[in-house]
Amino acid sequence: xxxxxxxxxxxxxxxxxxxxxxxxxxxxxxxxxxxxxxxxxxxxxxxxxxxxxxxxxxxxxxxxxxxxxxxxxxxxxxxxxxxxxxxxxxxxxxxxxxxxxxxxxxxxxxxxxxxxxxxxxxxxxxxxxxxxxxxxxxxxxxxxxxxxxxxxxxxxxxxxxxxxxxxxxxxxxxxxxxxxxxxxxxxxxxxxxxxxxxxxxxxxxxxxxxxxxxxxxxxxxxxxxxxxxxxxxxxxxxxxxxxxxxxxxxxxxxxxxxxxxxxxxxxxxxxxxxxxxxxxxxxxxxxxxxxxxxxxxxxxxxxxxxxxxxxxxxxxxxxxxxxxxxxxxxxxxx
Length: 334
What we know:
- The chain is α+β, with helices and mostly antiparallel strands and 334 residues long.
- The chain is built from eight helices and 20 strands.
- 25% of the residues lie in helices and 28% in strands.
- A hairpin with a 7-residue loop joins strand 18 and strand 19 (296-298).
- The radius of gyration is 21 Å and the shape is globular.
- Its EC number is 1.3.1.98.
- One of its GO terms (biological process) is cell wall organization.
- GO terms for molecular function: FAD binding; UDP-N-acetylmuramate dehydrogenase activity.
């Protein structure tokens, strides 16, 4: 099969943020063979390569990307016959499903609901694809992607001869908003995964999904393009004890405590940004959302540089006030 790239593709139209210049080359891979062939051609051209999943947490440079964008577009969901054993109760009730990396999280959540399978309710309303969610170990409402992973398949493109790697959960290196795939910085392309979900009550599953979707609509600035949470929440263990002692909001025994489980005790990044007085601050067409200050929203044809300037402002002000260095959750394509 001949591999033909699309050329000069406007990434602004693909980006969830509606920000970014053109990609010199662009290719949607439908299967692993496509991936191997396109990597071979990319090496012949000696052009840089970037793997773009759902483009929901990637800040794309205004000048675009002078290389090849590969979008894994593996869209299949198959219910497996295999049943997993709960290691604690020894009961066999978890159902396996095999899912392509290009499947949207919304499609996956809808499939689980249709089959009365529980375990993905936390992802109700989550944008992006399964591949991106695995790479960044996406999470919300106390759940994380790692909670349902049985195994992950990826294509290792860091070697001379690309090869498929199959990893069980324990080998995926999942951490808070991270994984071995993220740490390998583009050296691997996730192709598919096997998830284990619990047989459940369809009505209760639907209620939980709807509750989470409604929360997002109520609390998040969904009316504007964004990349979701700009910064990671801050683990309580990383906060200076002196700061905790003088601020009653950090006291878990007080009713006003802002500590939440994510899935371990954290202080939301939004709290620090709000307390630093940055709600509603704008630079160019980008604004720190007054509704949820961990969202930097595109309100008026923002440029990547506008977002970068706001990110740096937030970091500087939060560090000045709290002696805390916020860590970014978003990725960059430059």
